Each structure stands twice: as structure tokens, then as C-alpha cells.
Amino acid sequence: MTAEENIKSLGIELPDLPKPLGSYVPFVRTGNLVYLSGMLPMKDGKLIHPGRVGEEVSADDAVICARTAAINALAVLKSAIGSLDRVARCVKITGYVSSSMDFTEQPRVINGASDLIFQVFGEAGRHARAAVGVNVLPLNSPVEIEFIFEVREG
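Below the sequence we write its predicted C-alpha cells.
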């Protein structure tokens, strides 16, 4: 199946593009690479679970947040390239997790995004990755995730 077919089979409806929260653009394309700005787990203009993971947000809810951020990223990517079927591969994901001092499951949280990208793109969705714990993120978000994709001319 194609990436576009996979999105439909997963029951995912891509949202409207999130509006930038500052002086930046949602993506930059250079050559065959598309760099996406940090994505937050926003739905209908609001964070789905605000707070720090290990305090106000459970690890399981944070995994859902990472998946939601990835869905938002796919919406931005599709707007940048027209069709997700033009993705050659996901190159890298960098995930930031606003964590309590004793929380150490950042990789499991960011798996919420990584697993979705693999479900959508198959082997082309396997990527390099970093999962980093931080003190605080914009809007009191539990996660923020950056993406780099390689695309084919179309």
C-alpha cells in the first residue's frame, strides 16, 4: 500500500496546518530534504495533554502526544510536497520530552511518533533518532518533535 493508503487504513484524518507560534516557517525544503519545525501535540488548537511527563502527564499519555505530533507533522509535510507518496524516507526524528527529574523513558515516549512513521511509510519510515529529556517546552507541552524527510521529485 502507498503512504496515502496507509493513512486512510489507519483511520487518520490529517488536521489543518498548525499555525507557527513564533517567527519561523513550518518547513524548509532544500534539495530533496524537507525539514519540519518542531511539532507539538495540538488538536483543535489546544494541547491534548499539557504538563511534564512523570508529573501531570503519564508516560502512556505522552506516547499518544508523540503520535499526535507526528500526525501534525504529516499534515505539514503533505502541504509541502503535495502527496505523502513522494516521501523517499524519513531521515531523522529529534524528540524532546518535558520530563520530571526522575523520568527516564524518553525513548518509549518518542516511539509514539517513530511507530506511526513506520506504519505510514514502511521500511522508508525507519529513521535515525534522538529522544531528549528537557525541563520545559513551549505552551507547557509534554513533547516537541522535529522531522527530516527525503522526498522524490514529483
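The two ends are 18 Å apart (CA to CA).
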